Inverse folding.
């Protein structure tokens, strides 16, 4: 398949960045037959990152694939805020880690490195997370929120980063098809008001945070007062940080 016809096929399918996508598909294909297969998957609506097997996040290549949540660019703001708070050797926990993108990026950007732990309930996502955090010596835990963590982490976590699902259940259907049809529901659905997991994260955080430790959790501008209130109710001091560049909102709480 010629580059021109590849671009035309992507344009016809509604891909806005057809030229860039054509280059990525071409780079991922082993041969023409494989390229045709990748194109069919993309035209069929699969996220580009699932098709090519990776997503760029904070300048790093994160492995992703079918059944995994794709790291969003807006979440890079949370990484920036976390790195500003991390010290060399800090204990960093990426909760609801998905493919481990946040933890890996914080570890990569913190001078001197960190002691990295990542946890998620989804075994499919963790298969990618293991590969993404391996270069940074990350330890992977499988289970619901804090449940799988070892007692040795109690009161030791310096930086807790969280990108838990926060889309209200009734709004899942309004999301782009790439997300609602191809990413796991568990990584999107935050319950009736979107904040079920935020409240559970907040309630458990004080036991795991070190004195002066920080929790950073992505939310929306609309939901940020409620996310902050949940953290305050748990005994943490919370503030809201926003970025126009990333169109992102993060609540930062201190133990």
């Amino acid at each position: 398949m010629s580059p021109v016809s590849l671009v035309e096929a992507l344009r016809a399918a509604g891909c806005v960045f057809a030229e860039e996508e054509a280059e990525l598909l071409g780079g991922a294909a082993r041969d023409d037959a494989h390229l045709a297969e990748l194109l069919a998957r993309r035209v069929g609506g699969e996220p580009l990152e699932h098709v090519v097997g990776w997503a760029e996040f904070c300048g790093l290549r994160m492995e992703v694939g079918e059944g995994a949540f794709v790291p969003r660019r807006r979440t890079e703001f949370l990484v920036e805020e976390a790195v500003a708070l991390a010290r060399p050797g800090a204990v960093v926990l990426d909760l609801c880690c998905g493919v481990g993108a946040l933890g890996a990026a914080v570890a990569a950007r913190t001078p001197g490195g960190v002691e990295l732990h990542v946890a998620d309930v989804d075994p499919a996502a963790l298969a990618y997370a293991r590969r993404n955090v391996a270069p940074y010596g990350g330890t992977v835990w499988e289970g619901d929120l804090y449940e799988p963590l070892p007692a040795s982490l109690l009161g030791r976590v310096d930086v807790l980063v969280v990108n838990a699902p926060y889309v209200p259940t009734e709004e899942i259907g309004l999301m782009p098809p790439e997300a609602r049809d191809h990413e796991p529901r568990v990584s999107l659905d935050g319950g009736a008001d979107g904040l079920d997991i935020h409240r559970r994260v907040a309630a458990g955080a004080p036991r795991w945070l070190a004195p002066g430790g920080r929790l950073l959790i992505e939310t929306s501008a609309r939901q940020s007062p409620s996310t902050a209130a949940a953290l305050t109710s748990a005994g943490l001091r919370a503030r809201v940080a926003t970025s126009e560049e990333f169109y992102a909102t993060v609540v930062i709480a201190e133990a």
